């Protein structure tokens, strides 16, 4: 279906025809608010959107967040959905300079009523949880984990604008360094960790999102992520994997997992890490050594620092707390979109 753009005066009259066309074909083509002429045709997406993902479209609560010259402030209404996403090629390289017409979107399998804004965002302030497996199963690789955490903090975090916390977990999660931009405090928090006990991975992810990241909202956008360093095994959690993922979705938090599995094959723990990262819009990395981690962290930083921001109004939004799926893809099938798979429809 070829995208047709209208002037603002004729959008309302033509929208009913567009929705009918979408219902018949299962495809959605963007309405470009800026009146740009589209150049591509859409391939109909699947009727069923992908698995659940992230947080509600509720307006952010007030908090003190450092400003960034390249950030734009969003004023989100109850029925507006903010979506931050990245686009990479098959080698994982970030793809910049794409336009609104390069994408198609379905919200709850329907085309949005309108797109309120679309632009690239560079260098948003980061809110990062460093979550480190400190269970007995990781004892032989624990020094690798500590080095990984410290290397990430030194390489990625910018002291002026970003903040992070450190959480270790065995049977229970323990915060050893609370929200701060002080590198010495964060490094000390990592060095306080010591291995021992069972593994409650899902509990740790759930707690990090619920207790630390869910409340991290401000008057301007921030990029929230968990850097999870673990082998992915879990034998003690009270919550299940889907519950941990849903809490990440509520907190609008991406998981980037660093696997400590050094075996050539991918075990059950790696599949757990991939589920956590994929469902939240992140990625799992398998660095074989501390020296190789720099490449992984560079890829993570590129995604966190360079992304696209979209705000749209769903066609049939009701603030009933239900989970609404998001299906976003790029017309150029060489590129992969990394975005949350949905949100919870909660109002003010």
Helix content: 25-40%
SSE run: HEEEEHEEHHEHEHEHEEEE
Number of helices: 7
The total domain count is 1
If you average the pLDDT, what whole number results?
Answer: 78
What topology, given as strand order, has the largest sheet? 6-5-4-7-8-9
The CATH topology is what? Rossmann fold
Shape: globular
Structural class: alpha/beta
Largest sheet, if any?
Answer: 6 strands, mixed
Would you write up a description of this structure?
It comes from Candidatus Sulfuritelmatomonas gaucii. Residues 48-66 have a biased composition (Low complexity). Residues 36-66 are annotated as: Disordered. This is VWFA domain-containing protein. With 348 residues, the protein is α/β, with parallel strands linked by helices. 25% of the residues lie in helices and 24% in strands. A 6-stranded mixed β-sheet has the order 6-5-4-7-8-9, sandwiched between helices. Strands 3-10-1-12 form a 4-stranded antiparallel β-sheet. Strands 2-11-13 form a 3-stranded antiparallel β-sheet, with no helix packed on it. β4, α2 and β5 (163-169) form a beta-alpha-beta unit. The two termini are 37 Å apart. Mean pLDDT is 78; it is low at 1-76.
Throw out a few tags for this protein:
348 residues, Rossmann fold, six-stranded mixed β-sheet, disordered N terminus, VWFA domain-containing protein
